[in-house]
Automatic annotation (TrEMBL):
Reaction catalysed by this enzyme: a CDP-1,2-diacyl-sn-glycerol + L-serine = a 1,2-diacyl-sn-glycero-3-phospho-L-serine + CMP + H(+)
UniProt keyword Lipid metabolism, yes or no: yes
Name the UniProt record assigns to this protein: CDP-diacylglycerol--serine O-phosphatidyltransferase
UniProtKB keywords: Lipid biosynthesis, Lipid metabolism, Membrane, Phospholipid biosynthesis, Phospholipid metabolism, Transferase, Transmembrane, Transmembrane helix
E.C. number: 2.7.8.8
Compartment(s) of residence: Endomembrane system; Membrane
GO biological process, one term: phospholipid biosynthetic process
Transmembrane segments: 94-112, 124-145, 151-169, 181-198, 204-224
Pfam families: CDP-OH_P_transf
Gene Ontology MF: a single term: CDP-diacylglycerol-serine O-phosphatidyltransferase activity
Family: Belongs to the CDP-alcohol phosphatidyltransferase class-I family.
Originating organism: Evansella caseinilytica
GO cellular component, one term: endomembrane system
Amino acid sequence: MRRRITKSIPNMFTLANLYCGFLSIGFAADGQYNNAAILILIGMMLDSMDGRLARMLDADSSLGKELDSLADIVTFGIAPSFLVYYTYFFQFGLLGFAVAGLFPLFGAYRLARFNVSPAKASMSYFTGVPITAAGGILALLTLFGNTFPEIITTVIFTALCFLMVSRLRIPSLKEIPLPKYGTIITIFLGCLLILIYTESYNQFPYLIYIATPLYIAFLAYRFVKRGKNKKKIE
């Protein structure tokens, strides 16, 4: 029974990621674009945690892999495309809606190709830009959209669509020990977002005040555990 509960923990984080995608779409439809973007970034944190937890708890499974792909297409494919449509492409009418819909199509193909790729290759590099990174970039563009010309959004959106299905090799960070590189960037990003929205906390999704401390605690646990393992080896 305990083993079964342990194996389900990574899937809970994956489902939380999926729910963030659903909430993001709802916030975007309601005109709360910054909140919608924040939820996509929270989904990125949860997505990075479920894989780490699965390896930590030896809970990798085919079910978890498929569930992760389904969650990713919602949170990092459909949600960002709605966000970009509501914030910019809406001015082009039906054409803008059709163009925004291309992003999850390219993302779905990218995920399917990743799922059938050899396991060894997927551990050392990604073929094409991962949909998680692409969706996160679109979310950041929305957060800081007033800083850049609108044409930049169109160019980056188009580039990301093609980069996801390209054969470009992107180095994977799966084998890099915590808390380095992408993990540190995620921590600082979470702290930055809290600082930016402190004054508007009444309208801010409270989930980030739960997700960010939990993520930092998770990283601290991994760092301490890795230090203990090194001492045992020595």
